[in-house]
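Fold this sequence, please.
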Amino acid sequence: IKPRVNKTHTAIETTGVKHSLNPFDELSLEAAVRLRELKSPPNVEDILALSAGPAKCVDVLRTAMAMGADRSIHVEIPESSAAGELEPLGVAKLLKKVVEEEKSNLVILGKQSIDDDSSQSGQILAGLLNWPQATQASKIEFDESGERLSVTKEVDGGVETVRAPLPMVVTTDLRLNEPRYATLPNIMKAKKKPLVKKGLEDYGVEGGRRLKTIRVEGKFFAFGPHSGLYNIEC
């Protein structure tokens, strides 16, 4: 699908467009499933997928459960809602509430969204929780005790490995793994897995944007049908 700017030049046109799972979040989900498949400490007990957005997010969550998530939460934000899209700070505040409610000790999420490419939510979440963080992971390993996590990422001229005890926040990069396909049997099984619908008010989080998009323009180039550059003034 060729990206198009809407008539008001304030965003990309999403009417009639099917939502899909963020590729970076696919890596995160695959990482969680592989850690569980190791059947060694820390013995992953539960994999929860979460999405905040319009009704279309349900399809994304069903895909996540078909790939291995045990259950999911959809924080519904209607497209016509005054809350609008969540900015990274809002996403991080929402995740913090969910983490505290679920008593999670490891959060794995994509290093950035694929709409605004902010690459901020994971870092802000770690700050709000006062947890250690490792960003842009290309390798994730637990020690024998299952209490400390080593994360390797690529840096200029080589790789860097950091280690920290749980609880921890990890953001993932493209070299981490190759996500599995959701097979038809697993897609059918996913329809029976729990999917809970909630609202921002259930977590005491306010939506809305602090930044105002003044204008969006698309500039497409000849080297690919889907290639382009979007200038956004805020």
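Confidence is low (pLDDT under 50) at residues 221-234. Residues 23-37 form the longest helix (15 residues).
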